[in-house]
Amino acid sequence: MKNSEGKKGNILDVRDLVIHYELEESTVRAVEGMSFTLGYGETLAFVGETGAGKTTTALGLMRLVPSPPGRMVGGEIFFEGRDIMKASGEELRAIRGEKISFISQDPMTSLNPVMSVGSQIAEMVVLHSGLSMRESRARAEEMLSLVGIRKERMGDYPHQFSGGMRQRVLIAIALACSPALLIADEPTSALDVTIQAQVLNLMKGLKERFDTSMIMITHDLGIAAETCDRVAIIYAGRIVEMADTESLFTEALHPYAIGLFNSIPRIDDDRDLLDALPGLMPDPARLPQGCPFHPRCAHASQECENSAPGLEDVGNGHLLACWLRGKRNSEVGSVAQ
Ligand code: SF4
Predict the structure, then answer these.
(1) Which domains are seen in the chain, by residue range?
(2) Distance CA 10, CA 204 (A)
(3) Nearest to 291 by CA among 320, 259, 332
(4) Would the pLDDT of 318 be above 90?
(5) How far apart are CA 188 and CA 61, in angstroms?
(6) DSSP letter (8 states) at residue 281
(7) Ligand 1: distance of its center to the CA of 19 in Å?
(8) Which of 258, 296, 304, 305 to mutate to test the pocket of ligand 1 (most atoms within 8 A of CB)?
(9) Is the CB of 324 under 6 A from ligand 1?
(10) How large is the average pLDDT for residues 7-34?
(11) What whole-number distance in Å separates Cα of residue 53 and Cα of residue 67?
């Protein structure tokens, strides 16, 4: 049965999530009040620079933030109505792998180098499905062929595969138990561009086949556009703008999101130089007061330096955290210009 068949509403509801890393001399505020929902069967992109808090948020959803130094400071995470923050160790182990799967960006560190790929897929199925080893191996063969690898290669080891093939094996492991939610953390960043396209197409096809909900973590707006229904732009541990993919790509409103779009080369663009965003993302151990983007923002006012804007709906579910939201395009411009 497909995962979301007959199911309506949200598979995931995250409210005001705060995650810190307590270091000896400082507190790294990695996630600062993240709130979002994910519908059944929906794909949401987390887009932002390295260090924005995307991966920490994803690990937090599975309560896998390494502790210490990580600490889930506050917030609520409801997965299929269950409160993940209050789940026992046993409940969490059952959810991970069976209900929520994770694909990392580096297949080599995720795969066991001394175990054949077939055994690694079958082991996942045995652990989470209650099938016998014989049935699990049959499932492993089926999954390998679904990701385009011949079943004759069941007994091969990870080092006998190319980077793209290893990522396919990880996808097979992640989807072997038909999880309701797949979290993919930069799944193609270590691959060549041509292989990237193959792996993304494969993920898209399998996601539709299994009707899995998905969070795609990426720094690449092109990947978000290709694979996602909605996009959340993340900056300094917060969502600063979130909208359906078409709205965001035709009318980005947050100055940071506009900066990201303006820094992408376009074939029809005759500028000699791209508009690079000035400055760097703040050190999460020393976040500025007020809007965290204000030191880099050409529109910053005293209000921006004093207090951080919340994420509010500016129409049709397009969410924006910026004090300029009342003035919108006339003040800030938009990518459509
Ligand atoms: Fe810029 Fe102010 Fe908006 Fe922050 S709140 S993005 S500083 S205009």
Answers:
(1) 41-62+87-228 (3.40.50.300), 245-332 (no CATH)
(2) 20
(3) 320
(4) yes
(5) 21
(6) P
(7) 23
(8) 304
(9) yes
(10) 94
(11) 16
Q: Where does 176-268 have alpha helices with state H?
A: 193-210, 221-227, 245-250, 255-262
Task: Give the model's confidence band at 229: pLDDT under 50 very low, under 70 low, under 90 confident, else very high.
Answer: very high
Largest CA distance in the chain: 67
C-beta separation of 104 from 115 below 8 A: no
- Cβ atoms 144, 150 nearer than 8 A: yes
278: exposed, middle or buried (Cβ count in 10 Å: 0-12, 13-18, 19+):
exposed
Provide the whole-model pTM: 0.91
Which residues have CB under 8 Å from 86's CB, separation 6+? none
Both tokens of 39, joined, read: 């519908």
Structure tokens at 207: 């996601």
Q: Which two tokens stand for residue 288?
A: 């500025």
Which amino acid would we find at residue 206? L
Q: Is the CB of 311 under 6 A from ligand 1?
A: no
Q: How far is CA 38 from CA 154, 177, 185, 203, in A?
A: 35, 20, 16, 18
Amino acid at 183: I
The whole-number pLDDT of residue 270 equals: 67
